[in-house]
Design goal:
It is a single chain. The chain starts with 14 loop residues before the first helix and ends with a helix. It has helices at about 15-20, 30-40, 40-65, 75-85, 95-120, 140-155, 160-170, 175-185, 190-210. It has one domain (about 15-125, about 140-210): RNA polymerase sigma factor, region 2, helix turn helix motif (Rna Polymerase Sigma Factor, Chain: A, Orthogonal Bundle). The protein is globular. The chain is mostly helical. The longest helix has 26 residues, at about 95-120.
Length: about 210
């Protein structure tokens, strides 16, 4: 039987609606939910999924090329990823909510990488119609973007965990600053700003080193 939080509507809501899905009426912090979910609390698992699935779905949609999607959409990827995370919670040592988001994001990223590589081996399923202009990027364009993304991912993994979590929370998932502060376990908004800024500077240096 599928968990109660598994849903079938694959169309992500507008971003302002996604922001509204942060469960403002629920007093539990994301970190409290992570601790409870890790202890086997199904209600906490459902609350975590409701809190983050829209942002994760949007993130996955931007990472998975159209030609690599096949019959599985990004909502399926997010749900499968969350199932993997919840089943392997004993392998995760939570320090703050940002660490949980980073763990989910890495699991989802690995799934997307596998999907892209599998699609590359298969090739394009249908021949392109050269008589019809397309607003979508070409497969070659997307392959180049994939290579750049892999460089970014490698640089991101070389960052210390706090910096990596900061970039995931603010840049990739676009959490508002108050949620970034809470996710990173920072005492104030300025402290969260400083951490994200330092993380971006370090990431830029790593990316420059990658080019060399």
């Amino acid at each position: 039987m599928a968990p109660a939080w598994v849903i079938t509507d694959s169309s992500p809501p507008p971003l302002n609606q996604a922001d509204d899905m942060a469960d403002p009426g629920v007093p539990d912090s994301s970190f409290d939910l992570v601790l409870r979910a890790r202890a086997g609390d199904q209600v906490a698992c459902e609350a975590l999924f409701a809190r983050y699935h829209v942002r994760l779905q949007r993130w996955a949609h931007g990472r998975l090329p159209a030609w690599a999607r096949g019959s599985t959409d990004t909502l399926d990827l997010v749900q499968d990823t969350m199932l993997q995370v919840f089943r392997r919670f004993d392998e995760f040592e939570p320090k703050h909510a940002g660490a949980f988001l980073g763990y989910v994001r890495r699991t989802l990223s690995n799934t997307i990488t596998d999907r892209v590589r599998s699609a590359q081996r298969r090739g394009v399923a249908e021949p392109l119609d050269s008589t019809r202009p397309s607003a979508e990027p070409s497969q070659q364009d997307e392959l180049v973007a994939t290579e750049l993304l892999e460089r970014y991912e490698a640089a991101l993994e070389r960052l210390k965990p706090d910096y990596r979590d900061a970039i995931v929370a603010r840049v990739e998932l676009r959490l508002p600053w108050d949620e970034v502060m809470t996710a990173l376990g920072k005492p104030s908004l300025p402290a969260a700003h400083v951490t994200v800024s330092r993380a971006l500077v370090r990431l830029a240096r790593e990316m420059a080193h990658e080019r060399k």
